[in-house]
Amino acid sequence: MDMGWMVPVGVVAAISARGAFSTWVRAKHGYPLENENGRRSRRSRDGIPPETDRTVTLLTNENERLTGQVSRLEERIAVLERIATDPAERTAREIEALRDR
Q1: Is 27 within 8 Å of 33 (Cβ atoms)?
Q2: How many alpha carbons lie under 13 Å from residue 55 in its C-beta half-sphere?
Q3: Residue 6 to residues 14, 18, 23, 42, 98, Cα–Cα distance (Å)
Q4: Burial of 91 (0-12, 13-18, 19+ CB in 10 A)
Q5: How far apart, in whole angstroms, are the C-alpha atoms of residue 46 and residue 43?
Q6: CB 42 within 8 A of CB 33
Q7: pLDDT digits (tens), the chain, 101 positions
Q8: What pLDDT is stored for residue 70 in this prediction?
Q9: I need a surface site. Which of 18, 46, 58, 65 has the fewest CB within 10 A?
């Protein structure tokens, strides 16, 4: 049986697999992708990917939301710590004062 055709097919398969693996690794780690001419693809005029502005905006909004949420949780924890460490009679007086309002 003549298996001479397997060598060129194996070489082509290996080269294709290397290119696919290289592109996958670059995309996974955030490196710029290159087109078939070796030039970076999807770049704006100043060299920054166009999706970066949107990503920065989304991350900034999420950061502000999470910062506010952490602040509220810190306030709640402070109240719970005060309730847990204060004497029972002081806490009872504060509760009664709130009921009287």
Answers
A1: yes
A2: 6
A3: 12, 18, 26, 37, 85
A4: middle
A5: 8
A6: yes
A7: 677 888 889 999 999 999 899 888 888 887 776 666 666 655 444 556 667 778 888 899 999 999 999 999 999 999 888 888 878 888 788 888 999 87
A8: 96
A9: 46
* Residue corresponding to tokens 């999470």: 66
Residue 34 phi/psi, 5° resolution? -115, 145
Q: How far apart are CA 101 and CA 96, in angstroms?
A: 9
Report if pTM > 0.85.
no
Give the contacts of 51 (CB within 8 A, at least 6 positions apart). 42
Token pair of 71, please? 């602040």
Distance CA 22, CA 72 (A): 45
Cα gap 62→46, rounded to integer Å: 26
- Tokens of residue 63, six digits: 């950061």
